[in-house]
Write the structure tokens for this entry.
Amino acid sequence: MHEMSVTMSLMDLVLEEAAKAGARKIVGVNIVLGEMTGIIDHYVQANFELLSQNTPAEGAALTFKNTPRQARCRHCAHVFQPKDLAWSCPRCQSLEIEITGGNELYVESIEVE
Amino acid sequence: MEVKVLKDILNANNQIAQQNRKLLTGKRIMAINLMSSPGSGKTTLIMRTVEKLEGSARIAVIEGDVSSSIDAEKLGQAGVTAIQINTGGGCHLDASMVNSALANLSLDDIDILFIENVGNLICPGGFDLGEYLKVVILSTPEGDDKPHKYPLLFSQANALVVNKTDLLPHVGFDMAAFTRVFQGLNQQAAMFQVCGTTGEGIGEWAKWLMANLQKMRSQNS
């Protein structure tokens, strides 16, 4: 829903990291994106193409590793992928669950020249 | 050449949020990030809270909206210090918006600062503002199925306020089912049932706020 502000932060972050590494050009960005962030990767891609024009990141390929939502049952420790409106443990039906994945939004690495 | 980064994309926001947190705790202000759907009763809850805590705590409000200053004006008419932030279409507040608003508040005259986020159960959950506590409000007409639709926001809350309890007989909100599901996701949060219109339940909520203000101040003294 807020892909533009996320992409602006992403741009700042990769340009800063590339400068730190003394790179001339960024050719790739590897992003880990959790399903529960609500961020849609192809909008980030489109925004990035726009924002990166005339910067060292122009033309960089964005790769998204999409991580699914994941939960752990606090009752029986079963780890599972909850479905909408059915967040009970599929093994013991407990509602006592802890969200353990799907909220990721970070840059794993960048490819630079 | 591959360069490892391993940094949150919202890293810059998180850093400004930390600055806000340091500034606020340094001034002994308890900041509360108030999140909910539009129309759940955030502004009304703040007004009832101000009335209840008159003489006990000085309250100010940072009012976040996509557009308009209706809520800030409403609070201003009731004598509450309120700073309006218009996000101009943005679906959430971020730490830098709050940082700018803090510069326009007289921080020595505030005990509790409510940061009324943009009405939205998704986006505000991703942005740390530098608050001390996160509070989620849900009004009964929205339905009891919301925690599993918006699990992130509900799992982050330090407290949950169920508002508009006067409508319970009319809207088919199953409080027992809701409580089971919510507490399954979030075992730490305090839960309050209030009615902003009649003032029912505001006393318990206000007591909780004062207890947390004291706790915060004893941690940072």
Remarks:
- The mean pLDDT of chain B is 95.
- The two ends of chain B are 49 Å apart (CA to CA).
- The interface with chain A takes residues 1-13, 90-92, 94, 120, 122-123, 126, 145, 148-149, 151-152, 155, 180-181, 183-185, 187 of chain B (CB under 8 Å).
- Residues 30 and 112 of chain B are 5 Å apart (CA to CA).
